[in-house]
Amino acid sequence: MNSSKDWQFRLHELIYESNTPAGKAFDVGLLFAIFTSIAVVMLDSVHFLHLKYGSLFRILEWIFTILFTIEYILRLICIKKPHKYVFSLLGVIDMIALIPSYLGFFFVGTQSLLVFRALRLLRVFRIFKLGHFLSEINFLTTALKGSVRKISIFLLTVLMLTVILGSIMYLVEERENGFSNIPESIYWAIVTITTVGYGDISPVTPMGKFVAAVVMLIGYSIIAVPTGILTHDLAMLARQKKELPESCPSCSREGHDLDAQFCKYCGASLMRN
Amino acid sequence: MNSSKDWQFRLHELIYESNTPAGKAFDVGLLFAIFTSIAVVMLDSVHFLHLKYGSLFRILEWIFTILFTIEYILRLICIKKPHKYVFSLLGVIDMIALIPSYLGFFFVGTQSLLVFRALRLLRVFRIFKLGHFLSEINFLTTALKGSVRKISIFLLTVLMLTVILGSIMYLVEERENGFSNIPESIYWAIVTITTVGYGDISPVTPMGKFVAAVVMLIGYSIIAVPTGILTHDLAMLARQKKELPESCPSCSREGHDLDAQFCKYCGASLMRN
Amino acid sequence: MNSSKDWQFRLHELIYESNTPAGKAFDVGLLFAIFTSIAVVMLDSVHFLHLKYGSLFRILEWIFTILFTIEYILRLICIKKPHKYVFSLLGVIDMIALIPSYLGFFFVGTQSLLVFRALRLLRVFRIFKLGHFLSEINFLTTALKGSVRKISIFLLTVLMLTVILGSIMYLVEERENGFSNIPESIYWAIVTITTVGYGDISPVTPMGKFVAAVVMLIGYSIIAVPTGILTHDLAMLARQKKELPESCPSCSREGHDLDAQFCKYCGASLMRN
Amino acid sequence: MNSSKDWQFRLHELIYESNTPAGKAFDVGLLFAIFTSIAVVMLDSVHFLHLKYGSLFRILEWIFTILFTIEYILRLICIKKPHKYVFSLLGVIDMIALIPSYLGFFFVGTQSLLVFRALRLLRVFRIFKLGHFLSEINFLTTALKGSVRKISIFLLTVLMLTVILGSIMYLVEERENGFSNIPESIYWAIVTITTVGYGDISPVTPMGKFVAAVVMLIGYSIIAVPTGILTHDLAMLARQKKELPESCPSCSREGHDLDAQFCKYCGASLMRN
């Protein structure tokens, strides 16, 4: 039936695409619903608000659960391969956002799992993709993807440093000052090297303070590393982007160097005189 | 009346412009008055100084209020369209700086609102604009304006991360350790991810400490993002600035785009054959 | 004996090299053993786990000690100059990782020295060197080596600043507020200037708070220095890498620009046609 | 008298210059004496060490005072215009390092002023200037000098922000939670915006925590500014150094290296003889 196909297509455009006014409105409305439902979960977690408005919050929560369930079903029926959506990142998150409410029928205390609805906020980026933010997001994510490997090595090195420095601190500092075991000492090392510095565990002996000072200065110096990496990668990316489009007038192949005078594929002159 | 016009014009030059010695002196004097009046409000907020010099502070405050009122009136009468000043940023701030004193006649406790006089310090930038700081300020503000959009996306991502990580922490950590509700946990996540680390709320359970360590390492790594963005934008800006001056061989006017082939002022070819 | 040589060679390849599947497997297995042995030491340091599984941990620890001893001996017998390994960085670390267990026979309490096994984690980098991380690691280490000198000067300046600022704070702040002697005050200055801020020692008097604010603002501003240095050095390195190999066909001197058409030393044509 | 001149000249070379082995040895020896004398002052400030070794410390302190006095006199007599040294930065610091000991004859408690000897550590940079650190130090100081103006504007903006945000916090948060007056609140704002976060004063009310979160996110974002400025200025400096304008006398094209002897475009000699 043609009309069914059409109906399915239009629904798909409404829910999945955002280049039509209706699709845009749907996305904004959905985001608004997500925001509100998270706000409800948040406020419900505050004790005195729970006592006062608990029943109102429960009703609202169920309204949102039903709305999101309908949305989930619509998402399933308007695409050809529903399993693609179900097992996509956003699909899994949407499922996770629904489960806790329904689990509440069978188990007690699962409602606190509703906080995972916060993950649905990731849809914010879909909205941003519409507007003028697209090129900025693309640029940033490309640069971050390129830096991820280097920053992972950096983080691994930092973690190893905290294991070693935390272990040394465990030997140096007294047990009763909070460094009661190695995992605690490593936790302290992470708190210190990242310059967070809660102060829940802090060295008391002179030797411990000396080691702590070393850890702090290390943390203060190596913070330069991820910044240096990312800045460098952003610069590389911008340079590449700038130098790219230079197609041969003869064979129209691209990818020539800026100083190339002849096409490296067909030998034709690249000079525009 | 010509003399009236003249008088208005000279007053305008004195108050709004700063390229004459008198205008400069007025700006410096005004800034000094703002500084002193803020200092008075500050010192008055210190309990034992209030007890000792409270009446002196009140007199000084009224002197400044009268001076600022006169200044406000002068600003109004010496421009042609007073509403433009009234609804400008500086105009609104000037108004806000005046209201609390007068409100004091009718209501009790409004004097603490005088702290908003601190907003008048924004006039400092007017002074700087005079001197040799102009080009630096222009460069920085241009770069910051260009980065604002990207840094907003970054801040939004950080906020979303804190909502998600704070919610996870609310599930993981015990209520009595300070993570009593989700907003509190999000506050903790912001304190931690920005590496501020007050320590007023800090994880106690091993699982909580593990999540906290993850949050810290995230915060420590992503601080690279705004820095990378700004550094990159500064470099782009400097490159553009450098590549711009490409004067027309025919009319020698500058400011052409890099890909311009004809002078946008006289239409002559810009190609260097 | 040829077969002995051959056996020694193959063992060497297995243990020291990682370009064969067996060598790779050995490295991964070794790393896994190191990880597990460190985990055991860590968990054993937790009081209630020690009470519960203390004897299990002891057995595991001895298994790892024996395994690592065998590994150490194998490393010695399969190379021609064993002393080279013994006195290398990794050799010394491997030795340090073994001693505490054997010392346990003679002395009490040496087992806590087992934490130094964490140093063996440095072998992680050997594994990474295998895969696709090689170029990233090379790039980073080259840049860091180049920056080490500048960052040392920076750290020395920071240390000097903390000595001076800590001393000033010792004079300014009361003894009973934690600034009981100059080394303590310097420790406080390091905690503050690196923006760690435990809060175990914090100023109480107005004058002390003023000095502290100055220290914080200094720390907040100069964090730019190591980042600026590293970013700059990364950019320099990337530029050099790009420009390097281009030697003159006539005088074979190098260092020509990418767009050079003639040798800048002897004037010969650089065109490769 | 020639011999007197000669003696004076050699002494000048020994004390002020460092390009002779003797001058180098003098500088290193002096630095060692400064380090030791500061260490003595530091250790003497520790209560239980003062009780134990107080008299030894006093003797050592006097030995150093006499040594430094002799050095100061020698510095005066071996230059032609002694007042130039007396009123130079290092001269004033040297004087400040001497006065407290002598004041100890007349006044009680001046000995704690000896901590200002730490300022003499600035001489460290003289030593570094000798070796291979010269070019790095020059590069860094040139870049920092160029950035000082921009970073001052940044710091001023941060200070103004802390005044405004601190004042707002004073209105928002309860007096008894540590925000007892505006200067205290500004101190808190500096502690927070620089991400130090002692936790000695921290918000308690929901509204206060919200404002604090805003302050933290501002601090976390604007830390990019000084870094961006410095990195940018380092890059500019490096580019300038490289580009010093050098156009070919034959074809007038630019962009030659500093060490180029022939035009890379037309092969003409670039030598200006």
TrEMBL record, chains A, B, C, D:
Top-rank taxon of the source lineage equals Bacteria
Q: Which organism is it from?
A: Pedobacter africanus
> What UniProt keywords apply to this chain's record, in alphabetical order?
Ion channel, Ion transport, Transport
Report what the protein is called. Voltage-gated potassium channel
